[in-house]
Amino acid sequence: MLVSALTLCCSTKMKSVFQNLSDVRVFLAVMRAGSTLAASKTLGMAQPTVARRIEALEHVLKLVLFDRNTQGFTPTQDALMLLPSAEAVEKAAKELDATAARLASSQSRTIRITAVTDAFNPHLSAILKGFVESYGSVNFELIPSDEAIDISAGDVDIALRWTNKEIEDPSLICRNLATISHSLFASKSYTAKSDLPHSVSEMDGYKYLVFGGNLAVHPVNKWLLQRINPDQIAMTCQDFKAMKTAIQMGAGIGVLPTRFMKSDDTLVHCIELPDDLGSTVWLLVNPSAYRRPEVKAFTAYLAPRYSAHLRKN
To answer: What terms describe the molecular function in GO for this protein (predicted)?
Structure first.
């Protein structure tokens, strides 16, 4: 007796009937809301789009999921049978999202920022606070220093640097935020005791404040020293903050950014210095640090806001 072989045709691959898992979200929204109109408000999409998504899902599943009537969409027995599985998918998606967020948070490292001491002021604090509120969990290490910390070596992630030189370092991400001009200022109390110079030719006979320390070689300081005599020097200041304090106490006439003419009514403007003596404020970022999401996001947040602050004030 000959026995013919029975041939079974079976596919070794199971093709998923779901083309888009987001359809589960649409299905659950209609199940819970009872109509495509109510579901559209929950989902934030147009009602016709919700209806089309349900029709497409029914076509893929080869099932009728809802009975349409004047009362809305009533789930069929098949829909009720699918509900636990759909809710399990929803729960798994939420757990996936939460786990990914925890992993991203645990991998987020402290953003290290350096700048001159004067830069750590309420304006920068407001920007940092705003970023934390918008971005979420992020930590900062603030490193005030009048020395140029080596960014390329990875000692810091971001630097705000004032310089009168062009920065073209291929090992860094460099962005010009603003150019700051400088002027000679006096206090109102100094003005009460003496007239003020309003041109270089009138600079004789007044007391001046000069920079010491790292700022002694700054072009604005060299410019001033070339135009006054040693006996006109009333005080030496180590930084711009000390310079402003000395000017406000009436010790003499000193150099400050010209923007103080608009932002501080305790100061009286005397002479604006030549444009080529201005300082450029640079945002410098270590490329390795920039690849971290939190550093990249902070750089994009900081640059326009700090630039606007410099130009406005």
So the answer is: DNA-binding transcription factor activity; transcription cis-regulatory region binding
Of the two residues 37 and 164, the one the predictor is more confident about is 37
- Reply yes or no on whether the pLDDT at 4 is more than 50: no
- How many CB atoms lie under 10 A from the CB of residue 311? 12
Topology (CATH level 3) of domain 22-106? Arc Repressor Mutant, subunit A (1.10.10)
Closest CA to 89 of 23, 45, 39: 23
User: CA 141 to CA 156: how far, in whole Å?
Assistant: 9
d(CA 128, CA 309): 13
Architecture of the domain defined by 182-277: 3-Layer(aba) Sandwich (3.40)
Contacts of residue 46, Cβ cutoff 8 Å, sequence gap at least 6: 40
Whether the predicted model's global pTM rises above the 0.85 cut: no
DSSP state of 253: B
Residue 3's pLDDT band, with cuts at 50, 70 and 90, is: very low
How far apart, in Å, are the Cα atoms of 273 and each of 103, 133, 176?
Answer: 53, 40, 21
Domain ranges of the chain: 22-106, 112-157+286-312, 182-277
